[in-house]
Amino acid sequence: MAGKTKRNALLYVCGYPLSIFFIVVNEFCERFSYYGMRAVLVLYFKYFLQWDEDLATSIYHTFVALCYLTPILGAIVADSWLGKFKTIVYLSIVYTIGQVAMAVSAVHDITDSNRDGTPDNMTFHVALSMVGLFLIALGTGGIKPCVAAFGGDQFSEHQDKQRRTFFSVFYLCINGGSLLSTIITPILRGQECGIYSQQKCYSLAFGVPAALMVVALVVFIVGSGMYYKAEPEGNIMLDVCKCIGFAINNRYRHRSNQYPRRQHWMDWAEEKYDKLLIAQIKMVLKVLFLYIPLPMFWTLFDQKGSRWTLQATTMNGYFGKLVIQPDQMQIFNPILILTLVPIMDSVIYPLIKKCGFNFTPLKRMTVGMFLAAMAFVCAALVQVEIDVSRKRYVFDKYFTFETERIIVSVGSPGMTQAIFLKRKSRQTLLIPSVISDEWLLVSDNEFKDTFVNGMNMPVNVTTSAVDLGLIDFLAIFSFLMIRTKFSLLSGSQSCEYIKDFGFGGSYTFFIPSTFVFGPDCQDSITVVEDIEPNSVHMALQIPQYFFITAGEVMFSVTGLEFSYSQAPSNMKAVLQAGWLFTVAIGNFIVLIVAEIAKLPNKWAEYILFASLLVLVCIIFSTMAYFYTYIDPSEIEDQFSKKVDEDEDDKDKKKSVIIENNFVIHLAGQFI
């Protein structure tokens, strides 16, 4: 009664509780924070922490999996102990600390003692970022099942229309936050910032999402006095788990043949639990059984944030005068979702129905899985094109040797030396003008540009990003991401070099011994293109994004709709937890398959994942063929009627017993 009074006392604006405006703003800021951080995460691993692509992908998917495991914990805590409001506040604080930790971990100047733009103590940055990601996973996952439900609590029973509108706006905020953050944070990452040296600004790319999370927390707390806060009433998932556990244990204790078999193994819980609850659990288990093949879809789907983003780093992002960053390609997903959902609902599905085809939810999900597999076939074809363009370049520009030991002879009379090469790597041999001096063999760094000073005097090299300082004779200095301009300084003399470098290219700049400062000094510098600028255009990724998003609309949206239609009214949370669990398992499968397969070619890995999903798609379609659709409300009504009838029978029996006792009592009096 007290809870009802509190809800009726809420402030209303245009028929809506004022409290929901705080919740909507909170959700927008939180989703911006999460998706903004996640958009640049795999590139942070590769270019800032300098991990290889496999390790970057593994840690990325481990993080995503944790984000989808922790909602179960958040729901239990909210429903059983703290309530939704306190759970959201406490875990949002944890979430905010995690985002701040990520922003601090990306400040390279903290450990850059020699001020060359590269952190000297990478352990500090790795440790801080891992702590930050764990706290973010705990926070974002923990509040995920609470915020939408807390918003729904603000409406009274007669406000069904307003509640539906709220959920529409709520999910619009999710997609809006995702879309804007995926556009903005890669732009922030592409900026240059730093105290002593200018580098790609991952700290700003993580800092803005951290600031948005602070705003989300503050806004939510400001509305505290306006919320209806329902008391925790216990979590249905715990009841379900206890009932299932009792049934399994009871069946094990009565495993002997002397005990009669029961129709369903859950019937062994009848000694302790209500038959209606057991029937409801049976319905849920029937749907959860269909969930078994579903993680494979998420295995492919979530790689758009890892493998596909890494693939985009090897492609040309120039769209006319507009430059698209590799991590910005993910914007096609929310854009296509907002486009395809109304098209599917208003055009495609009605058209299929008019053609007389019974396009059931399970059939839609099967098609969605197949479309996701086709997306990875497209990704494989794009990867083949990338590999072909790079191999062609390597064969044209580099000598390729089958042996690790080669003999090099120079000059007349000749100078001969044995050179030992590293397998499966590109190296450059520097031979001084005085060939009797030391020869240098250096490894070409895929991510860095290199200066080599061939002059008999040191020169100072300065770029817009970093001051490299003095480079001595035949000294080699590698650095990250030079742009279009650098300066050579020696005393009062200077030389500016300006060049429009290609997208994704890597270069070695050789200052010859004959170099002379002057107006034409730029022409004296020899430039070697270590890695050709990306020639395969990012636009080729659009088809794979189209297929994966179309698959998501048919699989994910339909899957949730199907699950809710097949579950009892009080078991929606159980199915939601099961659905999120399939996402977590799917991300773990990425780690397992990639680790076991160890395929040398990325295109082969894409084909492997596509093949696995097609196989799972066949299994799922077979399971769906034998599935019988049910109406949970009808089954619940049948049990309710049966319970009422049993109660009536008990009352009648009780009445007969009373009457008999009365007769006996009267007879006793007459005796």
UniProtKB/TrEMBL annotation:
It comes from the Eukaryota. The lineage of its organism: Eukaryota, Metazoa, Chordata, Craniata, Vertebrata. Keywords: Membrane, Peptide transport, Protein transport, Symport, Transmembrane, Transmembrane helix, Transport. It holds the Pfam family PTR2. It is found in: Membrane. GO terms for biological process: oligopeptide transport; protein transport. This is Solute carrier family 15 member 1-like. One of its GO terms (molecular function) is symporter activity. The chain crosses the membrane at residues 9-26, 61-82, 88-110, 122-143, 169-189, 201-228, 283-301, 331-352, 364-384, 461-482, 545-564, 576-594, 606-627. Belongs to the major facilitator superfamily. Proton-dependent oligopeptide transporter (POT/PTR) (TC 2.A.17) family. The keyword Membrane applies. GO terms for cellular component: membrane. Its main location: membrane. It is a multi-pass membrane protein.
